[in-house]
Amino acid sequence: MNDEKQPLLTGPNTPIDNAEVQNVELVASPSIHTSPFKDEKTKKTEYNPTTERYLEYPTSNFDTLIHLLKGNIGTGILAMPDAFKNAGLFLGVIGTLFMGAICTHCMHILVACSRELCVRNQRPAMSFADVVEDAFAMGPVSLRPYAKKIRNMVNIFLVITQLGFCCVYFLFVATNLEDTMRFFSINLSVHSYLAMLFIPVLALGMVKNLKYLTPVSLIAAIMTAWGLVVTFYYILQDLPHTSSVKAFASWHQLPLYFGTAIYAFEGIGVVLPLENNMKTPEDFGGWNGVLNTGMVIVAALYTAIGFFGYLKYGDHVSGSITLNLPNDMLAQSVRAVMAAAIFLSYGLQFYVPMNIVWPYIKTKLNSEMALEYGEAMTRFVLISITCKYFK
């Protein structure tokens, strides 16, 4: 509004000497009674970013829920019993539910900020970095010069975080395959499994659209559910009394608990991409929306697996609950299906860093041939980084 020129009240073009000055009352015309500020508010309320999105393959509410569950339920859930060991049984329950509520609240804030800034700037959708940049650019005057730097910093952190998840997924699948194959007397090194997994992971990472990843995420969710059901089958048998484990751990163990629990809630990076690709994005928020429904399921599963896993195995619980399961065929199936589920989740985690890196690289390419093959080469290089990291 500062750049808008205000109307000037001017006198006659030629000076009039000794003219009688008359007091004239200015009456606003009904047609121009609305102030510029009201016009801006009307303009903002008229613009609906969700109706301006033109998606070739929009995702349904169910698709988004499945992606949200798979974006949050990863390798971290298997480490929750170990996290409870570092917090204590009572503090682990309270802390996990509290962190789940905080994470959900932050996701709601992120989505709300994105929608408000979309209306203000009349843009159909915004990425994580777009939201941060515009929030700084339209925020306090002292912070506005740092908008571009903050945007780059957020992008760098997101790429490092999401590629880090991809690295962990790669290694998790390879190590679980190694353990499972050893049960069948097949002894290969973890590097051999990393090499064998590279082509399937590369094919999964080449999927460009979230709509095509929905069946993959659905199969992964079913596998994860099977693995958790069998895990609960083992850990709910012959449970000891709650007095057999610590209610509160020592203070120096709490950082280990918070580190593991925060890592488990790993889906903040996929929130805006999921909301931006929805057919009905207005269903994402709300008390019974997709976000709350998914995060309640996630927090309940984390709390349950942590509580009963720690209660069952106590201080002998391993970094992954699957390592405490007996060495029989049913328990081996848990390791196999969880490894397969994490493998199928690779594409969703890789979607975020690719969407950050590729637009930057795209601006550096000029020829049509470079643009045609550039995206595939970018995906190949990034996936190779997540694999070569362990070699």
UniProtKB/TrEMBL annotation:
GO terms for molecular function: L-amino acid transmembrane transporter activity. Keywords: Membrane, Transmembrane, Transmembrane helix. This is Amino acid transporter transmembrane domain-containing protein. Signal peptide: none annotated. Residues 59-364 form the Amino acid transporter transmembrane domain. It is a multi-pass membrane protein. GO terms for cellular component: vacuolar membrane.
